[in-house]
Design a protein that fits this description.
Length: 71
Amino acid sequence: MNFQRDYGSGKIWEWNKTLLTDEHIIMLNKMAMAKSSKIRLQGKQYYSDFELTEKQKDALENIVKVAKLII
């Protein structure tokens, strides 16, 4: 994937624009509905693991609902 990167206020921001596929929506839905969802962000030298909070999983579930409407 081709990520964009910017730096500001002491933070690094990265993003990319990817069209959602059915497979993406299935994966995101599984993450939102799981008892525990962990994500690993991996760079060239380092990685960071974190677990989604219930609030984040609720937000993800809303994103999946919208995605299902537009795809």
